[in-house]
Specification:
Number of domains: 2
Low-confidence stretches: 1-8
Strand content: 5-15%
Shape: globular
Strand order of the largest sheet: 1-2-3
Structural class: mainly alpha
Bound molecules: tryptophan
Number of strands: 5
CATH superfamily of the largest domain: HUPs
Helix content: 40-55%
CATH topology of the largest domain: Rossmann fold
Largest sheet: 3 strands, parallel
CATH architecture of the largest domain: 3-Layer(aba) Sandwich
Mean pLDDT: 93
Length: about 350
């Protein structure tokens, strides 16, 4: 099909959300942000990206950190070149149709389905392991119903494809279930979405060698000022081999991070240096210089955006206006289908 004849409805719709907890780090960038931004520049898909700030509430963050993280996540995506003319970029809480749909979907969601959610089961298991009498101790309805909110995010915009990390695959499958149940009970309104798990994207190791993750507190924030970035890289765990001794690239956090950013030729060159026994100090210095150079321009833009929240707010509101051009008429049809309608026409 040529570009001209491709209409909005025949294009694939891709949608993904980012929970606004914490500061985006190198692992988020290589694993999720970079591929999403690349995809947003393609003409083949219509893409929706949003800040999942209602999801952030589930994790019991402080109000200040939810608020701050929304600015940081938005500024990160913009600084890295998200094309907001093509992609629709918005904040979940600016779309009142999302919580509205969440309730309607709750009415077709089996409680038993939610009982099987990994995140909920892990919380119950943690209670049981710690000898708690009440297996639901500390578990909120928001944690329990989280997949329904996520289903509303996805179904409201008729997404075909939902790129997510492995840990979120089950949630997209639940959204499929919920969509099918609704379509069967009421009307064929929802697209049944598919999770897209890209096994090719990098999973980065963090400071301690485990997967880089907020929950392990081992991250390297993307836009750390130069000095701090250097300090953090110097902290990355290595083994005790001396300079001159050949080193394995396999299992080296330094190598993995370098590989996620460098070109194939540069990666091969680094492999050679490992074999030739590069010292860990020199290796860290090289990684620092490489990343610093790579992130410099985006970091300048990021600071500019962080200092101009009014601009970021404006971008998000414009995105919400575009998103609501879709969600407002669609929720009307959904309400109608379940019998929530005016008494007279
Ligand atoms: N729950 C997802 C996460 O923690 C974020 C998210 C919220 C999401 N709503 C979504 C992802 C809808 C994809 C589609 O990573």
């Amino acid at each position: 099909m040529s570009k001209e004849t491709r209409t909005a409805t025949s294009r694939t719709t891709v949608l993904t959300g980012v929970t606004t907890t914490g500061t985006p780090h190198l692992g988020n960038y290589a694993g999720a942000i970079r591929p999403a931004i690349a995809a947003s520049r393609s003409d083949d898909a219509r893409s929706f990206y949003f800040l999942a700030d209602y999801h952030a509430l589930v994790k019991n963050q402080s109000p200040e950190s939810v608020h701050r993280s929304s600015l940081e996540v938005a500024a990160t995506w913009l600084a890295l070149g998200l094309d907001t003319d093509r992609a629709i970029f918005y904040r979940q809480s600016d779309i009142p149709e999302i919580p509205e749909l969440t309730w309607i979907l709750s009415a077709v969601t089996a409680k038993g389905l939610m009982n099987r959610a990994h995140a909920y089961k892990a919380a119950v298991a943690a209670n049981e392991d710690s000898g708690q009498k009440d297996p639901d101790k500390g578990i909120t309805m928001a944690l329990f119903g989280y997949p329904v909110l996520m289903a509303a995010d996805i179904l409201l915009f008729s997404a075909h494809k939902v790129p997510v990390g492995k840990d979120q695959k089950q949630h997209v499958e639940m959204a499929r279930d919920i969509a099918q149940r609704f379509n069967h009970n009421f009307a064929e309104l929802f697209v049944v979405p598919e999770p897209v798990i890209d096994d090719g994207t990098a999973v980065l190791a963090g400071l301690d060698g485990r997967k880089m993750s907020k929950s392990y507190n081992n991250t390297i924030p993307l836009f750390e000022p130069e000095k701090k970035l250097r300090k953090l890289i110097m902290k990355i765990k290595t083994n005790s081999l001396e300079p001159g001794e050949p080193k394995e690239t396999e299992g080296s956090a330094l190598f993995e991070i370098y590989r996620a950013f460098a070109t194939p030729a540069e990666v091969e060159a680094m492999r050679g240096k490992f074999a030739a026994g590069i010292g860990w100090g020199d290796c860290k210095q090289e990684l620092f210089e490489y990343l610093n150079e790579h992130l410099q321009a985006a970091r300048v833009e990021y600071s500019r955006l962080i200092d101009d929240p009014g601009y970021v707010e404006d971008v998000l509101r414009k995105g919400a206006t575009r998103a609501r051009e879709i969600s407002v008429p669609f929720i009307e049809r959904i309400r109608h289908a379940v019998g929530i309608r005016p008494l007279v026409r």
